[in-house]
Amino acid sequence: MNAEDELTAAQAALAGEHACVYGYGVVGAHLSDDAETAARALQAHRDRRDDLAALIRAGGGEPEASAPTYELPQPVTDAASASKLAVLMETRLVALYADLVGAAQSGELREFAAQALVAASVARGRWGGEPVAFPGLSGRPGTPGTQASPTPQTPSDTETPESPQ
């Protein structure tokens, strides 16, 4: 791995955090019993997003901005579908952070990525995800049934983001 691989993996993890910040806004809107849990998750992802952006800057990169809008991988209409979205987003992040652990050149970035991988794996379980032996290595995105986070959309792709009902 080299510095370019590190930056690519860091930007991918940052994109995942951007998607989670958007996604947890939707999740929280559909959870009356777990709204506080969703609010804490949203704040944790905002904090990790900001910390990762700072690490990218410290490494000489320019953090990519959030997409203008996101398309959810499935409709979110109730608490069950909101929890399912949370599991999918955390699953995606686990894989992205596993990639960053492998690509990180600096100890600080590698430690950050490892801690974020653990946090996403724990959050995945909290939302009802099945435990896996090696988080981030099994059930990788791209395999059937693991499309995990909202998909960024450009303004030409959609007029407005999906809004919770």
How would you describe this structure in keywords?
4 helices; 165 residues; two-stranded antiparallel ribbon; mainly alpha; disordered C terminus
**Major sheet summary line:** 2 strands, antiparallel
Our Rg estimate from Cα atoms comes to 15 Å
Whole-number average pLDDT? 85
Order of helices and strands: HHEHHE
Number of helices: 4
Runs in which pLDDT lies below 50 for 5 or more consecutive residues are: 143-148, 154-165
Distance between the termini: 45 Å
Number of strands: 2
Strand content: under 5%
- The residue fraction in helices comes out at 55-70%
Large-scale geometry: globular
Major beta sheet, strand line-up: 1-2
Structural class call reads mainly alpha
Textual characterization of the structure:
- The chain is mainly alpha-helical and 165 residues long.
- Helices cover 58% and strands 4% of the residues.
- The protein has four helices and two strands; from the N terminus they run ααβααβ.
- The chain has helices spanning 3-29, 35-58, 79-103, 107-126, and strands at 69-71, 151-153.
- The protein has a two-stranded antiparallel ribbon with strand order 1-2.
- Helix 1 runs antiparallel to helix 3 and helix 2 packs antiparallel against helix 4 (107-126).
- The model is unreliable at 143-148 and 154-165 (pLDDT under 50).
